[in-house]
């Protein structure tokens, strides 16, 4: 592998890691922190991508498309949580079966509405085109660099929210002991509903961000659900730092594998997950049960 190829593959891995983080961080909030098994998370990603593309196509505004995707996914996630998941809260198997059923139905409905076509976005001119990286000596797409910066901002904002604000402290306390938090007058169910909607909004927003870098098409929901599961399992349940590190590991391993031995690249992420679970069953940053 030449120097230019190595740098390009590494940058591709970093930007793919940023995309995986944007998708998986919503899954971390829902599954890792709230312990709600939402296997329809990939459907929220794809639904947000489709809605964002529709709005952006009709208005000509990529930003409006991204905002619409986040809003619609949040509403869909809130409806899912209130109508189907709240009555079976704490029953992991039922939650898994219900959300699998939702994802199957949603996939067929989206296929009927948008067809089996592949859709692409046109990001704003300021983040389109290429940029010359003088230190590395190569050119690289501006939009992929934007994804990297955007993921860093989102990660920092979530970390500050969960660790430096009263709301974040309340959320973490409710996760550990919801009865105690309820006793001091906090509406835990409302708090969890807002968290679920926020996690769904992040998935919908990631649908536009990821769809602008790659594409939006039927089947992408399963791909990003699987990526989110692998990232959360490797990083550890409920850990933002674990989600970031695991996204980086999975994406870099995936990109280097595609460059070096593409025939076996599909299984390398699973081997990484097996290795981590064998050495540290709770994940890299997870707490022991």
The global form is globular
Termini separation comes to: 43 Å
Query: Please, what is the average pLDDT?
Result: 91
Instruction: Tell me the number of strands.
Output: 2
Strand line-up of the largest beta sheet: 1-2
Main beta sheet: 2 strands, antiparallel
Helix content: over 70%
Radius of gyration: 19 Å
**Structural class assignment:** mainly alpha
- The number of distinct helices, counting runs of at least 4 residues, comes to 11
What fraction of the residues are assigned to beta strands by DSSP?
A: under 5%
What order do the SSEs take from the amino end to the carboxyl end, as H and E?
A: HHHHEEHHHHHHH
**Into how many domains do the coordinates divide?**
1
Task: List the uncertain runs.
Answer: none
Keywords: Amino-acid transport, Cell membrane, Membrane, Transmembrane, Transmembrane helix, Transport
InterPro entries: ABC_transp_permease, BCAA_transport_permease
Family: Belongs to the binding-protein-dependent transport system permease family. LivHM subfamily.
Subcellular location: Cell membrane
């Amino acid at each position: 592998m030449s120097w230019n190829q190595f740098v390009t593959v590494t940058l591709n891995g970093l930007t793919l890691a940023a995309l995986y983080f944007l998708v998986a961080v919503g899954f971390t909030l829902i599954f890792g922190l709230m312990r709600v098994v939402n296997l329809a998370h990939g459907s929220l990603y794809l639904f947000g991508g489709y809605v964002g593309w529709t709005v952006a196509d009709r208005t000509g505004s990529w930003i409006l498309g991204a905002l619409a995707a986040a809003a619609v996914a949040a509403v869909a996630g809130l409806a899912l949580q209130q109508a189907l998941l709240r009555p079976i809260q704490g029953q992991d198997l039922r939650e898994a079966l219900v959300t699998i059923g939702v994802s199957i139905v949603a996939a067929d409905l989206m296929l009927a509405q948008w067809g089996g076509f592949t859709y692409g976005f046109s990001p704003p001119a300021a983040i389109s085109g290429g940029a010359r990286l003088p230190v590395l000596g190569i050119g690289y797409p501006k939009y992929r660099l934007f994804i990297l910066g955007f993921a860093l901002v989102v990660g920092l904002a979530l970390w500050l929210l969960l660790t430096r604000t009263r709301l974040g402290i309340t959320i973490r306390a409710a996760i550990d002991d919801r009865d105690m938090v309820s006793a001091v007058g906090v509406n835990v169910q409302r708090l969890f509903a807002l968290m679920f909607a926020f996690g769904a909004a992040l998935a919908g927003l990631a649908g536009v961000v990821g769809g602008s870098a790659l594409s939006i098409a039927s089947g992408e929901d399963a791909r990003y659900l699987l990526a989110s599961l692998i990232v959360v399992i490797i990083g550890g349940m409920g850990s933002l730092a674990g989600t970031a590190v695991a996204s980086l590991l999975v994406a870099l391993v995936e990109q280097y594998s595609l460059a070096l031995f593409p025939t076996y690249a599909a299984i390398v992420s699973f081997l990484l997950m097996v290795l981590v679970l064998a050495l540290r069953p709770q994940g890299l940053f997870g707490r022991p049960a």
